Amino acid sequence: MVYDLVIRGGSVVDGTGAPPRTADVAVQDGLVVEVGKLGVGTTARRTVDADGAIVTPGFVDIHTHYDGQATWDDHLQPSAGHGVTTAVTGNCGVGFAPVRAGDRDTLVELMEGVEDLPGAVLHEGLGWEWESIGEFLDTIERRPHDIDLATQVCHGPLRVYVMGQRGVDREKATPADIAEMGRLAAEGIEAGALGFSTSRTLIHRTSRGEPIPTLRASRDELVGIGRAIGATGRGVLQVISDFEDFDAEMATLREVMESSGRPLSISVAHSRSGYDYRRCLQVLDEANAAGLTMRAQVAVRAIGMLMGLEGSVNPLKGSATYTAVEHLPLAERARRLAEPSTRATVLAELSGRTRDPNQPVEQMLSRQPMDRIFVLGDPPDYEPDPSTSIAARAAAAGRPAEEVLYDLLVGGDGSTLLYVPVANYVDGNLDAVHEMLAHPHTLPALGDGGAHVGIICDASFPTSLLTHWTRDRTRGPRFDLAWAIRRQCRSTAEAVGLLDRGLLAPGYKADLNVIDIDGLRLDAPAMVADLPAGGRRYLQSAHGYLCTAVSGVVTRCDGEATGELPGRLVRGAQQPAGVLT
């Protein structure tokens, strides 16, 4: 046989959790057909030498927001550059279907506010070639991509579609409303949506600052939709919540699981206020012991934001003087801001003496938590020591912290990024993240690829899982490489019903990575202007991904796209094809 692709001599980490072993991998017709020692005379249309590298299944990222980007872009960056071969979008209850023409602006405002996607980008990029969920899936399917994409029924647009302004205003759904939402949700699942998602957090607001439509959805509404989905016998459920009344909220979610019979995942993090993440982990144990399938999605780093002159979070925007130079090219802007007279004026304005009334108070330099701001660096440090914070630097130098932060922002060519870890960094380290990731019912997730484009670039989470957590961490325990690969490949795939991938074994989908694990590293995020309407976003490159293949087709080599677009819409749960003969 002349195989389509052969990966020779790599250290195979197959996704089962088993130790690495030296083996060849043969691919034919999009499937793995052999993992072992292939004969010297074996031929292939393409051969990749993996000597000295590891060979893994493709990464499955279950928490992204490519709902809009997938309709206008073939390349689902940043995820595709970090070993991801399957992404699940439509999370947190925000998306673009179903939709009536008169509600399009409402859904744009919802996505803009919740996921930091500029309205101008969405208005220009979205073609609105759909009304129903099925038509939206058809639109995605018509465009090939560099990775596979699955999507979900989103509660926000569903509620607006059925209830109109009553849904936007968060009014209580009637039994008829619930029945119709359930019918449409089940219809979306039958059309190929992978699951259903909703948001119940005050953090999520529209671009107008209004709470989201789904915030106070009743237990009856969630149970009714869940029961309708359960009747299809397929689909997963995803929820993000503030857990304000912890016991009542968990009781609601438990009833949703019991009435639907479907797996459910929640987002869990460690924060200074709100729910205790350990109580969430305990609930996971209790639910699974009772025969339910409940998981938590956990970020592999702190949940925070980037701060810089080019991003959405720029503390100098509170200054009228800064506003006057904001239009200048970055390097010229930084040079002007570094001039002593300009520096003094901006600092005075930011102290509140002459603040620009058109800028929000939250952007003022003096309002930032200086003991929680760090220089990100290149390569970036995502577990910085508290002794390196802006406050600590200022104290050591005997200078005001605001001046130290200002000088860092405008220094050099103005591209310095500051890192503000918030959740998961309460104790000044990532020990809580280690505890959450190690739990048997959690999954690495929450990278939000395609969203928060001017604040974060957390789609690089899979690379951090391999570098920081299996190799580089010095401030606490690490994880075994084979364990991490299983979690990012097979465990994530199983959680959403994609049982045809996440393993390197005969009969499974030939999504794979060849990785120089010793040389794998992240660059600092950089701002690029490649979105519709000239929109800008942070992208983050990685070095060490030697080869990525989707369905046996090589999509990336040495960090560069090959131009191949084998990625397809994944419609519903999948089963392995079986062993080829």
- What is the beta-strand fraction? 15-25%
The CATH topology annotation of the largest domain reads as: TIM Barrel
CATH superfamily of the largest domain: Metal-dependent hydrolases
Q: Output mean pLDDT.
A: 95
* CATH class category label of the largest domain: Alpha Beta
Report the strand count: 27
Rg over CA atoms, rounded to whole Å, is 24 Å
Number of separate helices: 18
Structural class: alpha/beta
Helix content range: 25-40%
The 3D shape can be described as globular
Q: What's the CATH architecture of the largest domain?
A: Alpha-Beta Barrel
Tell me the span between the first and last alpha carbons. 11 Å
Task: Write down the domain tally.
Answer: 2
Low-pLDDT parts are 359-364
Major sheet:
9 strands, mixed
Description:
- The protein is globular, with a radius of gyration of 24 Å.
- It is an alpha/beta fold and 581 residues long.
- It has 2 domains: 60-302 and 425-495, Metal-dependent hydrolases (TIM Barrel, Alpha-Beta Barrel), CATH 3.20.20.140; 306-423, no CATH class.
- Helix 8 (219-230) runs parallel beside helix 9 (246-260).
- It contains 18 helices and 27 strands.
